[in-house]
Here is the input.
Amino acid sequence: MSICDLALPNITAIQAYQPGKPIEELERELGISNIIKLASNENPLGPSPAVLSAIAEASKHICLYPDGNGFSLKNALAQKHQLNINQVTLGNGSNDVLELLARSFVSSSDEVIFSQFAFAVYALLIQAIGAIPVISPALDYGHDLDAMKKLITNKTKLIFIANPNNPTGTVLAPEKIKVFMKSIPSKVIVVLDEAYTEYTTQTVNTIDWLDTYPNLVITRTFSKAYGLAGLRVGYSLSHFDVANIINRIRQPFNVNSFALAAATVALMDNDYIVKTKELNDAGMQQFKLGLSNLGIDFIPSKGNFICVNVATDAGRVFEALLQQGVITRPIGSYGLPQHLRISIGQTSENERCLNALATTLELNYD
Ligand SMILES: *Cc1c(COP(=O)(O)O)cnc(C)c1O
Here is the structure.
């Protein structure tokens, strides 16, 4: 007998989430410096000075437990989004909130619908619970809401929608999501994952729909545009009854003191978000132009990353780019073995990545 045989079968069947390779690891392996990481959709601006001083201040109190209710941050979020504070739930990253939702509402006999090519964490959470994943075929690499709706059965408990989606960068028009919400049974919970919403130019505020749809939960994060990935903080906005339920099972101090302090300050720092978006828009343009000039196909993206079709084994291209000090993300585990996901970086980083791609694929600029 192996000790693994003692574990639950749904757990032993899980393939662990593959995170982007850390810079230090590559430095150790290759003994090279000057490595750039365009693998995990992090903010290339680095943390804002306001955030760094908030962390320095918070460091004076780290012998104390954090505020378990996260009052200041929740209050700031409630004000920003014009909601009641009891509609906000904080998590150790929005992944934490996604897990709280799944654990609160989904049993092993329930079905959960998500799209082909959708964010990998949904499948992981469902497998961890032992629930039944129902995968809806993608349409042009994005979510097909009509197909998702057709998959709803009596057993459907929850639906995940990532908008924009990671890793494909596809978006759904908010109007379509609204029609979807209107047309599905109110006993099905819809989790609208808006991790990249700050990068979009969306003018419809989905948060306004929470009044109409108690079965709608919106999740957001400080990991991407707010530049706090290392601190782990995200949140959900929902009906207060849903917040009340999921708060019962979260760990009492799931968000640490640094994360609380930094996120509260980051939320007020609108300049940082504006700069982030400008840099991302310019970098996206740079990639679109550069890739087109090289004749490399890509999926149009509304996030801070772009999914590139290298038309060959992307794992090998990934390795070749690594040798040149450029970390990207192969997404074969998503069923896209010829695609690489590349995060938009600083101008010089984007340039280096495009050149490394050209070298690797032996392509010339037109
Ligand atoms: C990055 C990402 C998140 C955020 O995860 P955190 O736990 O908040 O860092 C959530 N959803 C999607 C689709 C993402 O790409």
